[in-house]
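Quick start: read one record
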Amino acid sequence: MPFVLSRVDDRLIHGQVVIGWGRPLGVQRILLIDDDVAANDWEQDLYRMAVPEGVTIEFAGTAAAAARLGAWQADARRSMLLTGSVPSLVRLYAADPVALHRINLGGLHHRPGRTERLPYLYLTPDEYHSLVELELLGADITAQDVPSAVPVGLGALA
């Protein structure tokens, strides 16, 4: 089954993701793609505590996730793929552009070098240009912090 949501959010799993997105989309599995978290059992335990009962969670680094996208897609469970960075998303998209055809930009917060594009979305010039390149390759990229908000196309973020 296609991923019901492929999201970039630097907070990874939090209430807005599991309640705001997970419940309305009927998410049964969360795939958290992050190299640091995949290597840290303690962080994984913290994220597990934030996942509601009945929803499973799997952790993978970017390279391992890229190799597993096809298998995850073939699984019947309604899955949400989460990563915390644009570079990770770019690597995943390169591995399987069909699986990650629709991309949601959620919370990417202020850091040095990032410019505000929306109140919840800050991007460096390199991050923005990487996303433009993905869109030119066929990705459907929108920014949307919560499901009830109107999606904002990448072109409006220039």
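The chain has a mean pLDDT of 95.
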